[in-house]
Write a sequence for this structure.
């Protein structure tokens, strides 16, 4: 039995690229030490907005980590041949994205030094507590899966591992969505739709990250991805982006119609300053309309850069969505006394003017730096470059499958 | 150095006084005269060191907002003094507030209210449910606390709390009260002055309220004043829709 078709890549300027990734990661790490030494007073966070920019980036990477595995799952679990040579890369990026996301979220803890406490004291009623199982098992399963895909002798077992990893990542992202979905206290959250919405977002954000990294690898190799395959992956991205838009519409309708959170919805969609601006400009225009144009409008989709552009817009839209969802959801004051005008020394009834500080920004970007650095090193030393046997794919009709 | 030593000495003295009080209480609560008892400030005897909290007790607080004056913050100051919340904060949004005064106005009627807001010591606390390490915990007697030794500062409890009752310590701390450990990077909230309650005393805010608007006691003891008033008078739980069965009840709103 053959393994997934991949080969080793020789990256030109590898050391320069690695240095860039290392510098960005190091800046994030130093920022975290600075925050750890002085306390969170050096951030823009406070006792109303206590999950800030690092959470936006960390959750993007953690959710995307689950979704980037989609490419491997489509090949292994659903048997689509075009995706099979991309399975190992997809698994690798899932591992490096999750590691990067955890790097950011762990270093943003008030007591980052207590990681061992978090791993040895688990409260099973907590969704965060579940993560102590969800993340390590994900690393283990995907690592096993990638090995089985690459090892010719073990390839036969890759379907079982791929199916297990596929199921596990759905569970994991359900957990990430439930971090918010089970929060009864706040107008922005407490909705059963958040977990499935996060799953579909993971598909779009993960695929966007995959397409950008894959495009970089083809550039480093000096080769070109087959146009039919590129268009096929593009269409998949477009489908996911449209599905995300659908879920976001339903999420807001649920708040407006079922939960009657009209004051909150007015804030987040109309009157809340940066939040409606980021929602409409960032998520709707940049993160939804632009990728759809670059995927479905013939004149745009035929551009060689359309995949990368659509992916960049999808990622920017995802970050904009999370900023509105996580920070806007906290900035809006808790409604403890409905119908009453409220004021206090602790800023009850007041929208919080959160602005992220430089250390937060560096830590957040550090996550992307670490993802890039880890992925770059692994694809330089192990065979992760997808190899498409175009003649065989055409002959078998797999390109249309 | 001298201040902590003084405090340690005070602690020994308190232990002695507490032990004496327990001895009296275990003898059946020292009776000064028929019907007049020496210690029954809170509706339960002090706890001996090492004795576990009892689920027979449910500590609670009743706040009469009709007596609570807008602009009065005696309870807030007493809390800060008792619990050593004395750090200088550049941004007040980053400071810890275990108890705060909230002013309410009904825009339809113009009616105004003022009330202290603190941890509501829920029977079903969302902060305890979501805490990944179990640092957020509820004692058998209903007091919700944070174990500073295993809090990792993830702030998920702050996300889950419907009352904005929890604060993250945003800066290094000095000059702490040894009986009330606090720490940078950990989350904290009102403890009902557990260090006082365990000695048979009232929480500092209750003792300091000039209008006697705050009543503290054992909700499980049908003879306690708080239990009798909660049984007979109309009281409100904030966000009762969440069905958390709060330890803090309000009157007059």
């Amino acid at each position: 039995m053959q393994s997934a078709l991949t080969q080793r890549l020789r990256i030109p300027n590898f050391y320069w690229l690695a240095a860039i990734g290392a510098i960005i990661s190091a800046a994030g790490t130093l920022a975290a030490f600075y925050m750890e030494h002085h306390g969170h007073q050096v951030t823009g966070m406070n006792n109303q907005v206590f999950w800030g920019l690092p959470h936006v980036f960390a959750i993007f990477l953690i959710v995307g980590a689950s979704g980037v595995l989609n490419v491997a799952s489509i090949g292994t679990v659903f048997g689509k041949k075009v995706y099979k040579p991309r399975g190992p890369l997809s698994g690798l990026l899932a591992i490096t994205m999750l590691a990067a996301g955890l790097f950011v979220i762990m270093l943003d803890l008030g007591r980052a030094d207590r990681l061992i406490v978090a791993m040895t004291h688990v409260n099973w009623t907590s969704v965060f507590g579940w993560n102590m199982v969800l993340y390590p098992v994900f690393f283990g399963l995907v690592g096993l899966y990638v090995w089985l895909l690459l090892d010719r002798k073990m390839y036969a077992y890759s379907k079982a591992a791929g199916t297990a990893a596929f199921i596990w990542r759905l569970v994991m992202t359900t957990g990430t969505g439930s971090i918010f979905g089970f929060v009864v206290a706040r107008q922005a959250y407490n909705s059963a739709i958040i977990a499935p919405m996060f799953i579909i977002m993971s598909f779009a954000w993960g695929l966007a990250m995959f397409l950008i990294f894959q495009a970089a690898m083809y550039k480093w190799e000096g080769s070109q991805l087959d146009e039919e395959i590129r268009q096929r992956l593009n269409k998949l991205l477009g489908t996911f982006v449209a599905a995300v838009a659908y879920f976001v519409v339903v999420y807001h309708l649920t708040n407006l119609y079922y939960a009657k959170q009209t004051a909150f919805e007015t804030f987040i969609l109309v009157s809340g300053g940066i939040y409606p601006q980021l929602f409409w400009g960032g998520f709707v225009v940049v993160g939804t309309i632009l990728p759809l144009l670059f995927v479905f409008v013939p004149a745009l989709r035929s551009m060689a850069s359309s995949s990368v552009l659509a992916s960049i817009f999808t990622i920017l839209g995802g970050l904009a969505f999370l900023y509105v969802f996580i920070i806007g959801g906290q900035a809006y004051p808790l409604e403890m006394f409905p119908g009453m005008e409220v004021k206090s020394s602790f800023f009850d009834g007041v929208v919080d003017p959160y602005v992220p500080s430089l250390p937060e920004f560096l830590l957040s970007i550090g996550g992307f730096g670490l993802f890039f650095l880890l992925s770059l090193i692994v694809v330089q030393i192990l065979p992760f470059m997808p190899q498409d046997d175009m003649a065989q794919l055409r002959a078998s009709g797999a390109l249309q499958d | 150095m001298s201040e902590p030593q003084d405090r340690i000495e005070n602690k020994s003295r308190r232990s002695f006084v507490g032990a004496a009080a327990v001895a009296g209480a275990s003898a059946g609560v020292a009776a000064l005269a028929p019907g007049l008892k020496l210690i029954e400030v809170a509706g339960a005897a002090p706890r001996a060191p090492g004795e576990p909290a009892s689920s027979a007790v449910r500590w609670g607080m009743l706040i009469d907002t009709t007596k609570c004056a807008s602009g009065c913050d005696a309870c807030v100051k007493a809390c800060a003094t008792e619990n050593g919340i004395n750090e200088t904060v550049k941004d007040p949004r980053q400071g810890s507030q275990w108890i705060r005064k909230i002013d309410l106005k009904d825009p339809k009627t113009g009616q105004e209210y003022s009330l202290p807001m603190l941890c509501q010591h829920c029977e079903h606390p969302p902060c305890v449910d979501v805490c990944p390490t179990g640092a957020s915990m509820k004692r058998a007697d209903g007091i919700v606390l944070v174990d500073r030794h295993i809090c990792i500062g993830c702030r998920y409890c702050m996300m889950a709390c419907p009352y904005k009752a929890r604060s993250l310590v945003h800066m290094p701390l000095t000059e702490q009260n040894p009986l009330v450990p606090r720490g940078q990077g950990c989350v904290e909230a009102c403890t009902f002055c557990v260090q006082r309650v365990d000695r048979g005393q009232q929480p500092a805010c209750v003792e300091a309220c000039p209008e006697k608007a705050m009543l503290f006691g054992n909700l499980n003891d049908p003879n306690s004043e708080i239990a009798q008033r909660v049984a007979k008078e109309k009281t409100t739980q904030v966000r009762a829709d969440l069905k958390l069965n709060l330890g803090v009840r309000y009157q007059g709103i």
About this structure: Chain A is about 70% helix and 0% strand. The mean pLDDT of chain A is 95.
